[in-house]
Specification:
- This protein has 570 residues and is an alpha+beta fold.
- A hairpin with a 2-residue loop joins β22 (534-538) and β23.
- The protein is globular, with a radius of gyration of 24 Å.
- The protein has 18 helices and 23 strands.
- Among the domains are: 232-380, Flavocytochrome C3, Chain A, domain 1 (Alpha-Beta Complex), CATH 3.90.700; 450-545, Methane Monooxygenase Hydroxylase, Chain G, domain 1 (Up-down Bundle), CATH 1.20.58.
- α1 (15-26) packs parallel to α14 and α15 (458-468) packs parallel to α17 (502-526).
- The protein starts with a strand and ends with a helix.
């Protein structure tokens, strides 16, 4: 076994991981290491949507906005107010830092960053650098990290976080190319491994993303709002969200049965006009939402019902939906298409006028939307819950921080694009706190117990999760699955990096640990009449606690200045 000693380790090479490493290096941390399984993998670099959104404080126009107002939008009965305030307060700082690194967010000739309204928002705070915004962010942050000469392990599968009575003590890492184990003795770990994409079979996460939330769970960290998932429509041949302009172009929804018979099922179920209205609205009201069961979320349920019948569902852009005409459009839809100069005769022409890169994206994967439809399903898209953290993104394990989608900081009604802001703000806060916390590596504080992993087929567990715990949740089946997971985990046996199936066993263990906590939260939530407060899950036990309010704060300048100097040790 190879041994390393370093003060702070960042795990992950997406938007959050690189931001954390970049911030630490900028603050002067010399004892720093970034570990990633594959720097070209993951959600940040390999996913997007029609125009992937970054959500931040308004930086254009005459409409008022403030840190407090943005915090109130982000906060809620299931979102801690101090976390919301931090995300609001540092959103402009982090956004402008990305712009300075070369991410091309649209700006007018006067320097205003124009915005648009996204789902669950009340203002035009959203912006985009195109369908690959998070990829551009990742590349810009990586370039900065490399310029700062941050040390990296680029083939490292972290399979255990080592802890003792004082918190984080180190990491066990498997070198995927060299086949050797590395034990890293460290004081701080900033975990940026993305959402737990691997717990569902039907998901929009890229194939290269699986997440490793189980690392934090096994180390003793709690989860927050683990039941809160965002589901939506996505293509299956290429895992991609069909949100925004993909819907606002008003394509045809068709299902095809086993005999090849085609049917416009939305028009059959809703009527022609309402089918057209709901299709357009899905562009704004992208996530499935139980409050919209009488509205646009019927589209998701109808798509799922067709798939459950064994039919295949497609979006067809070559023809208009049945009954379509400009006169059939709602006033909102007509004005939007008119303002976008997208009043052409067919959906594909309208999409080309609104957002040609959305078509180019599929073309880059060999799919010609001018000629062929896109097969879709209802998929898990984003975990709005995750590992519980405080306002410095530290877990209840001292020295363990979790940033990005792996952290449970989003709330059920998160505005679209707030996840990208959270990657930057969370990493900024975690890095700053890790620099100040005074923790130091402890050379001999390492675990000697064998590493245990279950044995089984990952795909079977993922399929069970999709069937039992998607947008329609079956409580008896979830309870049965929870019991079966406990049986599988209790039967875990010692695993060694030299084993041929070691990586798959690590992945399965992570899947089952995460599914176990998520199912516990879902079962509790399903039995509640109200969902007030934050849902906490700790070692399979779930309970509610009140969300922390937005803090009262002293903004008298001299007071802030004095406190700042004391906090920074100046």
């Amino acid at each position: 076994m190879k041994h390393l000693t370093v003060r702070t380790v960042v795990v992950g090479s997406g938007c959050a991981g690189y931001k954390a490493a970049d911030t630490l290096a900028a603050l002067g941390e010399k004892s720093l290491l970034l570990v990633t399984e594959d720097r070209l993998a993951g959600t940040s670099r390999n996913t997007g949507s029609d125009k992937q959104t970054y959500y931040k404080l308004s930086l254009a126009g005459d409409d008022g906005d403030s840190v407090g107002e943005l915090a109130r939008t982000l906060a809620g009965p299931d979102m801690h107010g101090d976390i919301a305030l931090c995300e609001a307060a540092s959103s402009a700082t982090c956004f402008l830092s990305l712009a300075a690194l070369g991410v091309h967010f649209p700006v007018n000739e006067y320097g205003e960053y124009a915005g648009y309204q996204t789902d669950h928002d009340v203002r035009k705070r959203a912006t985009s650098a195109g369908p690959l915004t998070s990829k551009y962010m990742t590349e810009a942050l990586e370039a900065s990290v490399r310029a700062r000469q941050v040390s990296m392990i680029e083939d490292g599968l972290v399979f255990r976080i080592l802890t003792d009575a004082d918190g984080v003590a180190g990491l066990d890492v498997f070198s995927r190319t060299k086949g050797e184990q590395i034990r890293i003795h460290c004081a701080n770990v900033i975990l940026c491994t993305g959402g737990p994409a691997h717990i569902y079979a039907d998901c929009v996460y890229p194939e290269s993303q699986h997440g490793m939330s189980g690392l934090a769970i096994a180390a003793g960290a709690s989860m927050m709002n683990a039941d809160c998932w965002q589901y939506g429509l996505a293509t299956t041949k290429v895992r991609w969200n069909v949100s925004g302009s993909y819907q606002q172009a008003v394509p045809r929804y068709i299902s095809v049965d086993a005999e090849g018979r085609e049917r416009e099922f939305l028009a059959d179920a809703l009527g022609e006009k309402e089918a057209i209205d709901m299709t357009f609205l899905k562009g704004y009201q992208w996530p499935f939402d139980t409050s919209r069961l009488a509205g646009s979320s019927r589209v998701d349920l109808l798509v799922k019902a067709e798939c459950d019948r064994g039919n295949r569902v497609y979006l067809d852009y070559t023809k208009n939906p049945r009954g379509y005409s400009p006169e059939m459009l709602s006033r909102e839809a007509w004005e939007y298409l008119h303002n976008c100069h997208a009043e052409q005769a067919t959906p594909i022409e309208r999409l080309a006028a609104m957002n040609a890169p959305a078509i180019d994206l599929y073309a880059s994967h060999g799919i010609d939307m001018w000629k062929e439809p896109l097969e879709i399903r209802v998929c898990a898209q984003h975990h709005n819950g995750g590992i519980a953290v405080d306002a410095d993104w530290q877990t209840d394990v001292p020295g363990l921080y979790v940033c990005g989608e792996a952290a449970g900081t989003f709330g059920y009604k998160r505005p679209g694009g707030s996840a990208l802001n959270a990657t930057q703000v969370g990493a900024l806060r975690a890095a700053g706190h890790a620099m100040r916390n005074g923790r130091q590596p402890r050379e001999h504080a390492a675990m000697d117990e064998p590493f245990l992993c279950p044995v089984g087929d990952c795909r079977l567990w993922q399929q069970r999760m999709t069937r039992a715990a998607g947008i329609e949740r079956d409580v008896p089946e979830m309870e049965k699955m929870l019991q079966d997971i406990e049986t599988a985990l209790n039967a875990a046996t010692a695993a060694d990096p030299s084993d041929a199936d070691f990586e798959q066993r690590v992945l399965l263990g992570d899947i089952l640990l995460t599914q176990h906590e998520v199912l516990s939260a879902m079962i509790l939530g399903a039995g509640e009449e109200t969902h007030e407060g934050v849902l906490v899950t700790r070692q399979g036990k779930s309970f509610r606690e009140a969300a922390r309010p937005i803090p009262d704060r002293d903004l008298w300048f001299e007071s802030v200045w004095k406190n700042y100097l004391e906090r920074e040790g100046r």
